[in-house]
Amino acid sequence: MKLVYFAWVRERIGLPEETVDLPADVKTVTDLLAWLKTRGENYETALERSDVIRVAINQEHAEHTAALPRNGEVALFPPMTGG
Amino acid sequence: MKLVYFAWVRERIGLPEETVDLPADVKTVTDLLAWLKTRGENYETALERSDVIRVAINQEHAEHTAALPRNGEVALFPPMTGG
Amino acid sequence: MTAPCEPLVRVQAEDFDPAAESRRLTEGRRDVGAVVSFTGLCRDENGRLDALELEHYPGMAEAEIARIAAEAAERWPLTGLTVIHRFGRIAPGENIVLVVAASSHRRAAFESADFLMDFLKSRAPFWKKEHVSEKNSGDWVEARAGDLEDMKRWQR
Amino acid sequence: MTAPCEPLVRVQAEDFDPAAESRRLTEGRRDVGAVVSFTGLCRDENGRLDALELEHYPGMAEAEIARIAAEAAERWPLTGLTVIHRFGRIAPGENIVLVVAASSHRRAAFESADFLMDFLKSRAPFWKKEHVSEKNSGDWVEARAGDLEDMKRWQR
Fold first, then answer.
1. Which of A70, B73, C112, D100 has the fewest beta carbons closer than 10 A?
2. Contacts of C117 in chain D (CB under 8 A)
Protein backbone atom coordinates (compact mmCIF):
# COMPACT_ATOMS: atom_id res chain seq x y z
CA MET A 1 0.00 0.00 0.00
CA LYS A 2 1.18 3.50 -0.82
CA LEU A 3 1.23 5.91 2.09
CA VAL A 4 1.63 9.67 1.62
CA TYR A 5 2.27 12.26 4.30
CA PHE A 6 1.81 16.01 4.40
CA ALA A 7 2.80 19.05 6.49
CA TRP A 8 4.03 18.22 10.01
CA VAL A 9 3.12 14.55 9.64
CA ARG A 10 5.55 14.41 6.71
CA GLU A 11 8.21 16.39 8.57
CA ARG A 12 8.01 14.28 11.72
CA ILE A 13 8.01 10.93 9.92
CA GLY A 14 10.81 12.24 7.69
CA LEU A 15 9.36 10.89 4.44
CA PRO A 16 6.90 12.33 1.90
CA GLU A 17 5.69 8.85 0.95
CA GLU A 18 6.49 5.15 1.16
CA THR A 19 5.12 1.81 0.08
CA VAL A 20 4.48 -0.73 2.87
CA ASP A 21 3.39 -4.35 3.15
CA LEU A 22 0.67 -4.45 5.76
CA PRO A 23 0.14 -7.39 8.12
CA ALA A 24 -3.11 -9.20 7.42
CA ASP A 25 -4.75 -7.98 10.63
CA VAL A 26 -4.38 -4.29 9.72
CA LYS A 27 -7.82 -3.66 8.24
CA THR A 28 -8.93 -0.12 9.15
CA VAL A 29 -7.36 3.31 9.34
CA THR A 30 -7.25 2.95 13.13
CA ASP A 31 -5.32 -0.33 12.73
CA LEU A 32 -2.94 1.38 10.29
CA LEU A 33 -2.20 4.25 12.69
CA ALA A 34 -1.53 1.80 15.55
CA TRP A 35 0.73 -0.34 13.38
CA LEU A 36 2.70 2.66 12.05
CA LYS A 37 3.41 3.81 15.62
CA THR A 38 5.30 0.56 16.25
CA ARG A 39 7.70 1.35 13.41
CA GLY A 40 9.87 3.87 15.25
CA GLU A 41 10.08 7.01 17.31
CA ASN A 42 9.52 9.27 14.30
CA TYR A 43 6.17 7.59 13.59
CA GLU A 44 5.27 7.66 17.24
CA THR A 45 5.92 11.41 17.44
CA ALA A 46 4.11 12.14 14.18
CA LEU A 47 1.01 10.13 15.07
CA GLU A 48 1.01 10.69 18.84
CA ARG A 49 -2.27 12.60 18.88
CA SER A 50 -3.91 10.25 16.44
CA ASP A 51 -7.32 11.89 17.00
CA VAL A 52 -6.20 15.01 15.10
CA ILE A 53 -4.73 13.06 12.17
CA ARG A 54 -6.87 13.40 9.04
CA VAL A 55 -7.05 10.65 6.47
CA ALA A 56 -7.76 10.43 2.76
CA ILE A 57 -8.24 7.13 0.93
CA ASN A 58 -7.61 7.41 -2.79
CA GLN A 59 -7.81 11.18 -2.48
CA GLU A 60 -11.14 11.34 -0.68
CA HIS A 61 -11.62 12.24 2.97
CA ALA A 62 -12.20 9.18 5.17
CA GLU A 63 -12.96 8.40 8.80
CA HIS A 64 -10.59 6.47 11.08
CA THR A 65 -13.14 3.67 11.13
CA ALA A 66 -12.94 3.27 7.33
CA ALA A 67 -11.66 0.01 5.89
CA LEU A 68 -8.35 0.22 4.07
CA PRO A 69 -8.63 -0.27 0.31
CA ARG A 70 -7.19 -3.34 -1.35
CA ASN A 71 -5.16 -1.10 -3.63
CA GLY A 72 -4.40 2.56 -3.74
CA GLU A 73 -3.15 5.45 -1.72
CA VAL A 74 -3.73 6.36 1.90
CA ALA A 75 -2.78 9.89 2.96
CA LEU A 76 -2.18 11.07 6.54
CA PHE A 77 -2.07 14.76 7.37
CA PRO A 78 -2.93 17.42 9.98
CA PRO A 79 -6.18 19.42 9.87
CA MET A 80 -6.13 21.58 6.76
CA THR A 81 -5.35 25.28 6.83
CA GLY A 82 -5.88 26.42 3.24
CA GLY A 83 -8.23 29.09 1.97
CA MET B 1 -41.11 75.16 1.28
CA LYS B 2 -39.29 73.37 -1.52
CA LEU B 3 -40.84 70.09 -2.58
CA VAL B 4 -39.00 67.60 -4.81
CA TYR B 5 -40.48 64.53 -6.49
CA PHE B 6 -38.89 61.41 -7.94
CA ALA B 7 -39.73 58.44 -10.19
CA TRP B 8 -43.47 57.84 -10.66
CA VAL B 9 -44.38 60.47 -8.07
CA ARG B 10 -42.60 63.02 -10.28
CA GLU B 11 -44.16 61.64 -13.46
CA ARG B 12 -47.70 61.62 -12.09
CA ILE B 13 -47.50 65.07 -10.54
CA GLY B 14 -45.82 66.28 -13.72
CA LEU B 15 -43.17 68.35 -11.97
CA PRO B 16 -39.67 67.54 -10.67
CA GLU B 17 -39.93 70.20 -7.97
CA GLU B 18 -41.85 73.24 -6.84
CA THR B 19 -41.90 75.81 -4.07
CA VAL B 20 -45.15 76.09 -2.12
CA ASP B 21 -46.59 78.29 0.63
CA LEU B 22 -48.12 75.98 3.17
CA PRO B 23 -51.21 76.84 5.21
CA ALA B 24 -50.43 77.29 8.89
CA ASP B 25 -52.23 74.08 9.89
CA VAL B 26 -50.02 71.85 7.69
CA LYS B 27 -47.52 70.75 10.30
CA THR B 28 -46.53 67.14 9.59
CA VAL B 29 -45.74 65.03 6.54
CA THR B 30 -49.21 63.48 6.82
CA ASP B 31 -50.75 66.97 6.74
CA LEU B 32 -48.62 67.82 3.70
CA LEU B 33 -49.73 64.72 1.77
CA ALA B 34 -53.41 65.44 2.53
CA TRP B 35 -53.05 69.08 1.51
CA LEU B 36 -51.22 68.22 -1.74
CA LYS B 37 -54.06 65.85 -2.73
CA THR B 38 -56.47 68.81 -2.72
CA ARG B 39 -54.38 70.58 -5.37
CA GLY B 40 -55.56 68.59 -8.38
CA GLU B 41 -56.11 65.25 -9.99
CA ASN B 42 -52.41 64.79 -10.79
CA TYR B 43 -51.54 65.08 -7.08
CA GLU B 44 -54.42 62.84 -6.13
CA THR B 45 -53.24 60.13 -8.54
CA ALA B 46 -49.60 60.44 -7.50
CA LEU B 47 -50.29 60.30 -3.78
CA GLU B 48 -53.33 58.00 -3.86
CA ARG B 49 -51.66 55.18 -1.95
CA SER B 50 -50.05 57.52 0.52
CA ASP B 51 -48.89 54.62 2.71
CA VAL B 52 -46.25 53.63 0.11
CA ILE B 53 -44.96 57.19 -0.36
CA ARG B 54 -41.49 57.62 1.15
CA VAL B 55 -40.34 60.93 2.51
CA ALA B 56 -37.02 62.65 3.04
CA ILE B 57 -36.65 65.89 4.97
CA ASN B 58 -33.50 67.78 4.09
CA GLN B 59 -32.16 64.65 2.42
CA GLU B 60 -32.70 62.30 5.35
CA HIS B 61 -35.35 59.59 5.50
CA ALA B 62 -38.34 60.62 7.64
CA GLU B 63 -41.61 59.11 8.88
CA HIS B 64 -45.03 60.41 7.88
CA THR B 65 -45.48 61.52 11.49
CA ALA B 66 -42.43 63.79 11.30
CA ALA B 67 -42.88 67.53 11.71
CA LEU B 68 -42.16 69.61 8.63
CA PRO B 69 -39.04 71.75 8.90
CA ARG B 70 -39.25 75.51 9.09
CA ASN B 71 -36.92 75.73 6.09
CA GLY B 72 -35.56 73.29 3.64
CA GLU B 73 -36.47 70.57 1.23
CA VAL B 74 -39.08 67.84 1.49
CA ALA B 75 -38.83 64.97 -1.01
CA LEU B 76 -41.62 62.53 -1.92
CA PHE B 77 -40.86 59.34 -3.80
CA PRO B 78 -41.79 55.66 -4.22
CA PRO B 79 -39.96 52.85 -2.39
CA MET B 80 -36.38 52.75 -3.63
CA THR B 81 -35.14 50.19 -6.14
CA GLY B 82 -31.42 50.87 -6.43
CA GLY B 83 -28.57 48.49 -5.77
CA MET C 1 -9.85 48.58 18.07
CA THR C 2 -8.27 51.00 15.61
CA ALA C 3 -10.23 53.88 14.06
CA PRO C 4 -12.78 52.91 11.39
CA CYS C 5 -11.56 53.23 7.81
CA GLU C 6 -12.63 56.18 5.66
CA PRO C 7 -15.10 54.81 3.07
CA LEU C 8 -14.92 56.03 -0.52
CA VAL C 9 -18.38 56.78 -1.95
CA ARG C 10 -19.12 57.81 -5.53
CA VAL C 11 -22.39 58.38 -7.40
CA GLN C 12 -21.74 58.81 -11.10
CA ALA C 13 -23.06 58.33 -14.63
CA GLU C 14 -19.80 56.83 -15.93
CA ASP C 15 -18.85 53.18 -15.69
CA PHE C 16 -16.37 52.02 -13.02
CA ASP C 17 -13.54 49.51 -12.98
CA PRO C 18 -13.99 46.91 -10.21
CA ALA C 19 -10.37 45.75 -10.60
CA ALA C 20 -8.95 49.25 -10.14
CA GLU C 21 -11.12 49.76 -7.06
CA SER C 22 -9.99 46.46 -5.51
CA ARG C 23 -6.38 47.30 -6.26
CA ARG C 24 -6.74 50.66 -4.54
CA LEU C 25 -7.66 48.85 -1.30
CA THR C 26 -4.74 46.38 -1.40
CA GLU C 27 -1.82 47.93 -3.25
CA GLY C 28 1.28 48.44 -1.14
CA ARG C 29 -0.40 46.94 1.94
CA ARG C 30 0.51 43.82 3.90
CA ASP C 31 -2.36 43.84 6.40
CA VAL C 32 -5.26 42.96 4.09
CA GLY C 33 -6.28 39.31 4.31
CA ALA C 34 -9.59 39.37 2.45
CA VAL C 35 -11.23 41.44 -0.26
CA VAL C 36 -14.88 40.89 -1.13
CA SER C 37 -16.18 42.65 -4.19
CA PHE C 38 -19.81 42.77 -5.26
CA THR C 39 -20.72 43.99 -8.74
CA GLY C 40 -24.37 44.43 -9.67
CA LEU C 41 -25.06 44.36 -13.41
CA CYS C 42 -28.04 45.11 -15.63
CA ARG C 43 -29.75 41.95 -16.93
CA ASP C 44 -31.88 41.81 -20.07
CA GLU C 45 -34.53 39.63 -18.37
CA ASN C 46 -34.48 37.01 -21.13
CA GLY C 47 -34.36 39.63 -23.87
CA ARG C 48 -37.31 41.61 -22.54
CA LEU C 49 -35.23 44.60 -21.47
CA ASP C 50 -33.51 47.16 -23.71
CA ALA C 51 -32.07 49.19 -20.86
CA LEU C 52 -32.62 50.44 -17.33
CA GLU C 53 -32.95 54.13 -16.56
CA LEU C 54 -31.67 54.85 -13.06
CA GLU C 55 -33.04 58.00 -11.48
CA HIS C 56 -31.46 59.26 -8.27
CA TYR C 57 -31.78 62.04 -5.72
CA PRO C 58 -28.58 64.05 -6.16
CA GLY C 59 -27.03 64.96 -2.86
CA MET C 60 -29.12 62.59 -0.79
CA ALA C 61 -27.86 59.57 -2.76
CA GLU C 62 -24.25 60.34 -1.81
CA ALA C 63 -25.20 61.27 1.77
CA GLU C 64 -27.29 58.15 2.36
CA ILE C 65 -24.65 55.78 0.94
CA ALA C 66 -22.02 57.55 3.05
CA ARG C 67 -24.17 57.01 6.17
CA ILE C 68 -24.57 53.30 5.41
CA ALA C 69 -20.86 52.90 4.61
CA ALA C 70 -19.86 54.67 7.83
CA GLU C 71 -22.12 52.32 9.79
CA ALA C 72 -20.45 49.29 8.16
CA ALA C 73 -17.00 50.71 8.95
CA GLU C 74 -18.04 51.10 12.60
CA ARG C 75 -19.52 47.64 12.80
CA TRP C 76 -16.76 45.58 11.14
CA PRO C 77 -12.96 45.94 11.37
CA LEU C 78 -12.38 46.99 7.76
CA THR C 79 -9.13 48.22 6.25
CA GLY C 80 -10.98 49.77 3.30
CA LEU C 81 -14.46 50.19 1.84
CA THR C 82 -15.59 51.54 -1.53
CA VAL C 83 -19.14 52.00 -2.81
CA ILE C 84 -19.96 53.25 -6.30
CA HIS C 85 -23.51 53.58 -7.68
CA ARG C 86 -24.26 54.65 -11.23
CA PHE C 87 -27.27 56.59 -12.52
CA GLY C 88 -28.67 57.28 -15.99
CA ARG C 89 -29.27 54.83 -18.82
CA ILE C 90 -27.61 51.43 -18.33
CA ALA C 91 -27.71 48.68 -20.94
CA PRO C 92 -27.85 44.93 -20.22
CA GLY C 93 -24.40 43.61 -19.37
CA GLU C 94 -23.27 46.96 -17.95
CA ASN C 95 -22.32 47.64 -14.34
CA ILE C 96 -24.78 49.32 -11.96
CA VAL C 97 -23.25 49.15 -8.49
CA LEU C 98 -19.98 48.17 -6.83
CA VAL C 99 -19.12 47.42 -3.22
CA VAL C 100 -15.56 46.46 -2.28
CA ALA C 101 -14.77 45.62 1.36
CA ALA C 102 -11.24 44.82 2.56
CA SER C 103 -10.32 43.48 5.97
CA SER C 104 -7.79 41.36 7.80
CA HIS C 105 -10.64 38.94 8.33
CA ARG C 106 -12.66 37.00 5.81
CA ARG C 107 -15.96 37.13 7.66
CA ALA C 108 -15.82 40.92 8.17
CA ALA C 109 -15.26 41.43 4.44
CA PHE C 110 -18.15 39.14 3.46
CA GLU C 111 -20.63 40.42 6.01
CA SER C 112 -19.97 44.11 5.45
CA ALA C 113 -20.34 43.80 1.66
CA ASP C 114 -23.57 41.83 2.11
CA PHE C 115 -24.86 44.40 4.63
CA LEU C 116 -24.00 47.29 2.29
CA MET C 117 -25.95 45.76 -0.60
CA ASP C 118 -29.00 45.04 1.55
CA PHE C 119 -29.07 48.61 2.82
CA LEU C 120 -28.37 50.18 -0.57
CA LYS C 121 -31.34 48.31 -2.02
CA SER C 122 -33.75 49.57 0.60
CA ARG C 123 -32.39 52.97 1.64
CA ALA C 124 -30.36 54.58 -1.13
CA PRO C 125 -32.57 56.97 -3.17
CA PHE C 126 -32.38 55.33 -6.62
CA TRP C 127 -35.25 54.19 -8.81
CA LYS C 128 -35.04 51.84 -11.77
CA LYS C 129 -37.25 52.29 -14.81
CA GLU C 130 -37.31 49.52 -17.38
CA HIS C 131 -37.06 50.33 -21.07
CA VAL C 132 -38.64 47.31 -22.70
CA SER C 133 -38.16 46.13 -26.20
CA GLU C 134 -41.83 46.19 -27.29
CA LYS C 135 -42.93 49.68 -26.37
CA ASN C 136 -41.46 53.14 -26.11
CA SER C 137 -41.73 53.73 -22.40
CA GLY C 138 -41.43 51.25 -19.60
CA ASP C 139 -42.47 50.80 -16.05
CA TRP C 140 -40.86 51.61 -12.76
CA VAL C 141 -39.43 48.58 -11.02
CA GLU C 142 -41.38 47.78 -7.86
CA ALA C 143 -39.53 47.41 -4.58
CA ARG C 144 -39.40 43.78 -3.47
CA ALA C 145 -40.74 42.93 -0.02
CA GLY C 146 -37.74 40.58 0.18
CA ASP C 147 -35.35 43.51 0.04
CA LEU C 148 -36.73 44.83 3.29
CA GLU C 149 -36.51 41.35 4.81
CA ASP C 150 -32.87 41.14 3.72
CA MET C 151 -32.14 44.38 5.52
CA LYS C 152 -33.78 43.16 8.71
CA ARG C 153 -31.21 40.35 8.91
CA TRP C 154 -28.75 42.94 10.21
CA GLN C 155 -30.81 44.20 13.12
CA ARG C 156 -29.28 43.58 16.52
CA MET D 1 -34.23 24.96 -13.06
CA THR D 2 -31.55 24.95 -15.74
CA ALA D 3 -28.51 22.69 -15.54
CA PRO D 4 -25.86 23.71 -13.00
CA CYS D 5 -22.94 25.71 -14.41
CA GLU D 6 -19.59 24.05 -15.03
CA PRO D 7 -17.20 25.40 -12.37
CA LEU D 8 -13.64 26.29 -13.32
CA VAL D 9 -11.09 25.01 -10.75
CA ARG D 10 -7.36 25.67 -10.80
CA VAL D 11 -4.58 24.81 -8.35
CA GLN D 12 -1.39 26.57 -9.33
CA ALA D 13 1.88 28.13 -8.14
CA GLU D 14 1.48 31.25 -10.30
CA ASP D 15 -0.47 34.33 -9.32
CA PHE D 16 -3.96 34.91 -10.75
CA ASP D 17 -5.82 37.98 -11.98
CA PRO D 18 -9.16 38.45 -10.17
CA ALA D 19 -10.31 41.00 -12.76
CA ALA D 20 -9.69 38.65 -15.69
CA GLU D 21 -11.55 35.86 -13.90
CA SER D 22 -14.55 38.10 -13.17
CA ARG D 23 -14.57 39.31 -16.76
CA ARG D 24 -14.60 35.72 -18.01
CA LEU D 25 -17.89 35.15 -16.14
CA THR D 26 -19.63 38.28 -17.47
CA GLU D 27 -18.22 39.17 -20.87
CA GLY D 28 -20.72 38.98 -23.71
CA ARG D 29 -23.54 37.95 -21.35
CA ARG D 30 -26.76 39.77 -20.50
CA ASP D 31 -28.12 37.35 -17.88
CA VAL D 32 -25.65 38.00 -15.04
CA GLY D 33 -27.03 40.29 -12.35
CA ALA D 34 -24.45 39.81 -9.60
CA VAL D 35 -20.79 38.91 -9.32
CA VAL D 36 -19.22 38.28 -5.93
CA SER D 37 -15.48 37.91 -5.83
CA PHE D 38 -13.48 36.84 -2.78
CA THR D 39 -9.71 37.26 -2.78
CA GLY D 40 -7.67 35.88 0.11
CA LEU D 41 -4.28 37.50 0.56
CA CYS D 42 -1.18 36.80 2.64
CA ARG D 43 -0.86 39.17 5.62
CA ASP D 44 2.42 39.94 7.37
CA GLU D 45 0.82 39.71 10.85
CA ASN D 46 2.17 43.11 11.93
CA GLY D 47 5.56 42.47 10.39
CA ARG D 48 6.06 39.08 12.05
CA LEU D 49 5.73 37.11 8.82
CA ASP D 50 8.22 36.93 5.94
CA ALA D 51 6.13 34.55 3.86
CA LEU D 52 3.74 31.65 3.90
CA GLU D 53 4.67 28.28 2.42
CA LEU D 54 1.56 26.52 1.14
CA GLU D 55 1.84 22.76 0.85
CA HIS D 56 -0.89 20.87 -0.97
CA TYR D 57 -1.88 17.34 -1.93
CA PRO D 58 -1.61 17.32 -5.73
CA GLY D 59 -4.56 15.62 -7.36
CA MET D 60 -6.71 15.57 -4.26
CA ALA D 61 -6.58 19.39 -3.96
CA GLU D 62 -8.13 19.81 -7.42
CA ALA D 63 -10.59 16.95 -6.87
CA GLU D 64 -11.77 18.19 -3.49
CA ILE D 65 -12.23 21.80 -4.67
CA ALA D 66 -14.10 20.48 -7.71
CA ARG D 67 -16.42 18.48 -5.41
CA ILE D 68 -17.15 21.57 -3.27
CA ALA D 69 -17.67 23.77 -6.34
CA ALA D 70 -20.03 21.23 -7.91
CA GLU D 71 -22.04 21.16 -4.68
CA ALA D 72 -22.33 24.97 -4.73
CA ALA D 73 -23.41 24.89 -8.39
CA GLU D 74 -26.14 22.37 -7.48
CA ARG D 75 -27.28 24.34 -4.48
CA TRP D 76 -27.46 27.86 -5.95
CA PRO D 77 -28.60 29.03 -9.41
CA LEU D 78 -25.20 30.23 -10.62
CA THR D 79 -24.30 31.34 -14.14
CA GLY D 80 -20.60 30.82 -13.45
CA LEU D 81 -18.16 29.82 -10.70
CA THR D 82 -14.38 29.98 -10.58
CA VAL D 83 -12.07 28.81 -7.78
CA ILE D 84 -8.29 29.21 -7.88
CA HIS D 85 -5.96 28.22 -5.03
CA ARG D 86 -2.22 28.82 -5.11
CA PHE D 87 0.52 26.72 -3.52
CA GLY D 88 4.22 27.33 -2.81
CA ARG D 89 5.87 30.36 -1.25
CA ILE D 90 3.61 33.41 -0.99
CA ALA D 91 4.79 36.78 0.32
CA PRO D 92 2.67 39.25 2.32
CA GLY D 93 0.43 41.26 0.01
CA GLU D 94 0.24 38.43 -2.54
CA ASN D 95 -2.91 36.54 -3.50
CA ILE D 96 -3.61 33.06 -2.07
CA VAL D 97 -7.12 32.11 -3.12
CA LEU D 98 -9.88 33.39 -5.39
CA VAL D 99 -13.57 32.55 -5.56
CA VAL D 100 -15.78 34.27 -8.14
CA ALA D 101 -19.50 33.46 -8.22
CA ALA D 102 -21.86 34.91 -10.82
CA SER D 103 -25.64 34.64 -10.78
CA SER D 104 -28.81 36.39 -11.84
CA HIS D 105 -29.45 36.83 -8.15
CA ARG D 106 -27.48 38.76 -5.58
CA ARG D 107 -28.08 36.40 -2.68
CA ALA D 108 -27.03 33.30 -4.63
CA ALA D 109 -23.74 34.96 -5.57
CA PHE D 110 -23.01 36.03 -1.98
CA GLU D 111 -24.00 32.78 -0.32
CA SER D 112 -22.20 30.48 -2.74
CA ALA D 113 -18.93 32.44 -2.47
CA ASP D 114 -19.20 32.41 1.33
CA PHE D 115 -19.99 28.67 1.32
CA LEU D 116 -17.03 27.95 -0.96
CA MET D 117 -14.60 29.75 1.31
CA ASP D 118 -15.88 27.99 4.44
CA PHE D 119 -15.53 24.60 2.80
CA LEU D 120 -12.14 25.35 1.25
CA LYS D 121 -10.80 26.27 4.69
CA SER D 122 -11.87 23.04 6.28
CA ARG D 123 -11.80 20.45 3.47
CA ALA D 124 -9.30 21.42 0.77
CA PRO D 125 -5.94 19.68 1.41
CA PHE D 126 -3.66 22.71 1.85
CA TRP D 127 -1.40 23.48 4.79
CA LYS D 128 0.16 26.83 5.61
CA LYS D 129 3.62 27.10 7.14
CA GLU D 130 4.76 30.47 8.42
CA HIS D 131 8.21 31.75 7.62
CA VAL D 132 8.84 34.23 10.38
CA SER D 133 11.28 37.08 10.36
CA GLU D 134 13.34 36.07 13.42
CA LYS D 135 14.26 32.47 12.70
CA ASN D 136 14.99 30.29 9.70
CA SER D 137 12.08 27.90 9.85
CA GLY D 138 8.57 28.55 11.02
CA ASP D 139 5.59 26.69 12.34
CA TRP D 140 2.59 25.13 10.71
CA VAL D 141 -0.55 27.18 11.07
CA GLU D 142 -3.05 25.43 13.33
CA ALA D 143 -6.58 24.88 12.10
CA ARG D 144 -9.05 27.17 13.84
CA ALA D 145 -12.03 25.59 15.59
CA GLY D 146 -13.98 28.54 14.17
CA ASP D 147 -13.35 27.34 10.63
CA LEU D 148 -15.24 24.16 11.34
CA GLU D 149 -18.04 26.15 12.94
CA ASP D 150 -18.21 28.35 9.84
CA MET D 151 -18.68 25.27 7.69
CA LYS D 152 -21.47 23.94 9.90
CA ARG D 153 -23.51 27.07 9.07
CA TRP D 154 -24.30 25.44 5.73
CA GLN D 155 -25.73 22.19 7.03
CA ARG D 156 -29.38 21.60 6.23
1. A70
2. 106, 110
CATH topology of domain B2-77: Ubiquitin-like (UB roll) (3.10.20)
Burial of C115 (0-12, 13-18, 19+ CB in 10 A): buried
A15-43 mean pLDDT:
97
Q: Cβ C125–B8 below 8 Å, yes or no?
A: no
CA distance A53 to chain D (A): 12
B18-54 pLDDT tens trace:
999 999 999 999 999 999 999 999 999 999 999 999 9
Tens-place pLDDT, residues C114-154: 999 999 999 999 999 999 877 556 788 988 888 888 888 88
Indicate the pLDDT class of residue D145, thresholds 50, 70 and 90: confident
> DSSP assignment, residue B28?
B
Residue whose C-alpha is closest to residue C15's, from C102, C99, C87: C87
Q: Round to whole Å and give the CA distance between C8 and C4.
A: 12
Q: Classify A53 as helix, strand or coil.
A: coil
Chain A residues with CB inside 8 Å of D56's CB?
82
DSSP of C5-21, one letter per residue? P--EEEEESS---HHHH
Q: Where are the domains of chain A?
A: 2-77
